[in-house]
Amino acid sequence: MEKTAKFWDRMAPRYSRQPIANETAYQTKLALTRQYLNPNSVVFEFACGTGSTALAHAPYVKSIEAVDISLKMVEIAQDKAESMRIDNVTFRQANINDLSVSDNAFDMVMGHSILHLLPNKDEVIAEVYSMLKPGGTFVSSTACMGDSWTFRVMAGLFSVGSLLGVLPVLNVFSRFELVASLVSAGFEIDYEWGLRIVMWCLL
After folding, report:
1. 192 Cα distance to chain centroid
2. What pTM did the predictor assign?
3. For an engineered disulfide with 76, which of 9, 47, 50, 61 has Cβ 3.0 to 4.6 Å away?
4. What does the pLDDT look like over 76-118, one tens digit per residue?
5. Residue 68 and residue 114: Cα distance in Å, rounded?
6. Positions in the chain whose pLDDT score sits under 50
7. CA-CA distance, 116 to 107, in Å (whole number)?
């Protein structure tokens, strides 16, 4: 995991400067997510990156705890929160695999653009389920690379880079396999949007 953290530390400055690839789609995801939020919502986000999504939701919730494996990402997120004078979002460096979180602690958990970068996605999904209050929601944008031969080739290149220690792990699975993982953990699929990049709201 140390190599993964170092990779994202190196990426953080450039990542923070990149414009959102599809602003319309991103705003749609934010709007859909907010349908599951209210002023009393307590939210957790893992792999929060530079904090853009957590900060965008801050006005609509009670609090957000956001973590990322990269210290550099977290530092950028903290600077953003300070400059925006947002005080109900806390950022800290942490690995989702090493967290000690009480059961039934959150109304919503968000994990965007991360499940396909985890070697143990099923374990993480099960942990997310335990973190949620009854009736809670898990929201994730996930690249289902198993549905495309182009993505499978890309995954092969990533595998070589991962073995060399220069790229993170890339976990290839299809939408069908992702649904199976979520249902196996106890979730019900409430909303699905998109093609290869899928948004899930799970109750």
Report:
1. 16
2. 0.87
3. 50
4. 999 999 999 999 999 999 988 888 788 889 999 999 999 988 9
5. 10
6. 160-161, 163-164, 196-199
7. 23
DSSP class per residue in 50-62: TSHHHHHHGGGSS
- The alpha carbon of 38 is separated from its chain's Cα centroid by a whole number of angstroms, namely 20
pLDDT at residue 94, rounded to an integer: 94
Q: What is the pLDDT of residue 160?
A: 47
- Name which of 47, 24, 185, 183 is nearest 116 in CA terms: 47
β-strand pairing of 106-110 with 132-143: parallel
Which residue is listed with tokens 């992702």?
178
CB atoms within 10 A of CB 65: 21
Domains and CATH numbers, the chain: 2-202 (3.40.50.150)
Give the three-class secondary structure for 195.
Answer: coil
Residue with tokens 């994730």: 140
How do beta strands 189-193 and 197-202 pair?
A: antiparallel
Q: What angle do CA 12, 148, 184 make, to 5 degrees?
A: 80
